[in-house]
Amino acid sequence: MRRAWTIGVLVLGLAACTAAPDDTDKGSVDTDTVVDSDTDVDSDTVPGETDTDVADTDVVDTDTDTDTLTPDDDGFFDAGDSVPPVYTDVTPLLPQTRFQFQGQPVVMAFPDPLVAVAFVFHGTGGDADVASSTEMLRVLNELTARGIGFVAGTSDNRAAKTWNVQTGLGSNPDWAYWQALRARLIDDGHFTDSTPLIGLGYSNGGNFAGYFAHACDDAGWPLVAISLHQSTGRCAAFGEPPRLPAAFQPAEHDETVDPASVQEAYDHHRADGGTARIWPILEERLAPTRWVRSGSITVRQSQDLWQLAVDEGYYDAMGYRQFPESEIEARVEAFSALPDVQYPRPTKAVLNVVLATHAINGQNGADEARWLAGLIP
């Protein structure tokens, strides 16, 4: 017999969370810090380990419960568990610096000591502020805890807001942008020409990570791996990614990038002799405090949303989806449009993460960061 979760347990000793202010700095000074962790689900449909101090530490996964229950090895709770995880907002492990480069935003952070730098490529409709979005922040916090800094850039095409993966190296404005940005950051002393690099991209940004890997090979840059979130890493200009280490993350209910195509790309990479890992992004149960992780919704508001989802028949009292997989997209839209939903956009964003659709998802961030850190010379 399933036991209903008790909301009262969730708020014991938990302070109410408030939204972080949006960062509105558009200046060119590169000393501004950003702590905005608002959820930005950057979607194509909408837009040997060297750090011995922090190795293998899951620093950002705050899905802790308030009782003695512990998650299973896969991080999920069984049907018999009476206490769900309590979610809190995700904040940057390090202050983020935001500045303008070639008229577009860049967001970055560098731990000390620094062992590598991840270049972060947003998906369709996004920009460098993807680094401040909640789910990407879960990944970046894990990386910075292991000595891996990051630089999130912005694509040249501001109409479609996509990276150019079609044209050759000599005429691609996005590759020229990263060449100039890397040179600027080296000149400013943030890292050196020999600092190991990682290409990390979501969706269209993952395809650009594949392009970037070919470009780095041509330029002789020290790229050690690429990490592809809901992407095959393939690009029109070069086809498959080169055979350097690659991580793949297909989402269970992704209708934009077929998870089967990501699995096929992983299999192809392995068959061609490339080192690869794959971590599927799986649907989770909906906890009463799950919307707190949007960065815009308080504990009480999240609990009210959860109760509404139960009352309207979208979920049962154990947090299990009550509608078929084929209706996920329509049900997310319908629920977010209900009159009692005060903040439709973050409400929809969190549901897409929970349901493992085409949305940035930090579910596998700790595994991803551990593996990438282990590749750094």
Keywords:
about 375 residues, alpha/beta, Rossmann fold, nine-stranded mixed β-sheet, 9 strands, about 10% strand
Describe the structure.
- The chain is built from nine helices and nine strands.
- It is an alpha/beta fold and 377 residues long.
- It has one domain: Rossmann fold (3-Layer(aba) Sandwich), CATH 3.40.50.
- Strands 1-2-3-5-4-6-7-8-9 form a nine-stranded mixed beta sheet, with helices on both faces.
- Helix 2 (134-145) links the parallel strand 4 and strand 5 (148-152).
- Helix 2 packs parallel to helix 9 and helix 7 (328-336) runs antiparallel to helix 8 (344-354).
- The protein is globular, with a radius of gyration of 20 Å.
Instruction: Please state the structural category.
Output: alpha/beta
* Helical segment count: 9
Number of strands: 9
CATH class category: Alpha Beta
The H-and-E topology, N to C, reads as HEEEEHEHEHEEHEHHHH
Mean pLDDT, to the nearest integer, reads: 84
- Any idea what the shape is? globular
CATH topology title: Rossmann fold
The biggest sheet, with number of strands, parallel, antiparallel or mixed sense and barrel status, is: 9 strands, mixed
Radius of gyration (Å): 20 Å
Spans of 5+ residues with little confidence (pLDDT < 50)? 6-79
Distance between the termini: 52 Å
Estimate the helix proportion, in percent. Answer: 25-40%
Strand order of the largest sheet: 1-2-3-5-4-6-7-8-9
